Amino acid sequence: MKKIVVLTGAGMSVESGLSTFRADDGLWENNPVSRVATHEAWESDPEYVNAFYNMLRTKYNGVSPNNGHLLVARLEEKYDVTVVTQNVDNLHEAAGSTKVIHLHGELMKACSSRDVEDTRCHVQLGGERLEIKPGELAADGSLLRPYIVFFGEAVPNISVAADCVADADIVIIIGTSMVVYPAAGLVRYARNGVPVYLIDPNDVIGNGKSSVTHIKKGASAGMEQLFAELM
After folding, report:
1. Are 3 and 170 in contact (CB under 8 A)?
2. How buried is residue 165: exposed, middle or buried, by Cβ count under 10 Å (0-12/13-18/19+)?
3. What is the per-residue pLDDT across 68-103, written as a single tens digit (0 to 9) for each?
4. pTM for this entry
5. Burial track 71-107 (b if 16+ CB lie within 10 A, e otherwise)
6. What gap in Å lies between CA 48 and CA 223, rounded to an integer?
């Protein structure tokens, strides 16, 4: 069975109604990175940082995957598919994708602030349990924090993702500018001659490959076209 790796960014989830972080009206516009998305911000004001992600969870809760997510999941009918996403939502899983690597963390999880990757301290959020309460502790006694990779922190899954891309027979990139490192460098791990498809309505630079089939459509329309070709 051929292996497909799908690299997705914020543009994948826009059609589901989720704001991007970097657009002019994005979430960073009113919430500076330095206040909510750095380790220093967490150390200086954990309640403020938790309040921001609590707010995000209320926005994300109940959001449904769009047809792009659903078609990516349906590729598993014929291919061995791994999704590598820069998004912190769980829409790929909700759509039915069974192998999803989150590079920047998962909004619907909380974790230890002492050891982010200690799975014994991971807490699944969602439904009626959306908030991390002020002063709430993880199982190891440290403050509970969002399971989000803050700016300046290591991206623990990047090497796993790179190995997947290096082993892929087809690479699909959807809804990402491919300018945010280290994720932007992932496509460079694709073997020579491996087909690379880019689905994005805008001109995109920094894909790292000279020969890329660019489908200039949104996530759903682009996946409809590519799905028909691949299936």
Report:
1. yes
2. buried
3. 999 999 999 999 999 999 999 999 999 999 999 999
4. 0.91
5. bbbbbbeebebbbbbbbbbbbbbebebeebbbbbbbb
6. 38
Residue that the structure tokens 């682009």 belong to: 222
For 148-198, how does the pLDDT look when each residue is reduced to its tens digit (9 = 90+)? 999 888 899 999 999 999 999 999 999 886 665 666 689 889 999 999 999
Q: CA–CA separation, 21 vs 14, rounded Å?
A: 11
Q: Is residue 65 over pLDDT 70? A: yes
Q: Any idea what DSSP says for residue 174?
A: E
d(C-alpha 124, C-alpha 108), whole Å: 6
Token duo for residue 30:
């009113």
Please provide the DSSP assignment of 117-152 as one string: T-GGG-EE-BTTB--PPTT-B-TTSSBEEEEE--BT
- Catalytic residue positions? 104
DSSP string, 98-123: S-EEESSEEEEEEEESS-TT-GGG-E
- Joined tokens for residue 126: 């969602």
Residue pair 6/172 in contact by the 8 Å Cβ criterion: yes
Q: Give per-residue pLDDT as tens, 51-64.
A: 999 988 988 888 89
Task: HSE, CB side, 13 Å, CA atoms: give it for residue 92.
Answer: 27
Q: Which residues in the chain belong to E strands, given as ranges? A: 3-8, 80-85, 100-102, 105-112, 123-124, 144-148, 170-174, 196-199, 213-215
CA angle 225, 162, 228 (to 5 degrees): 10
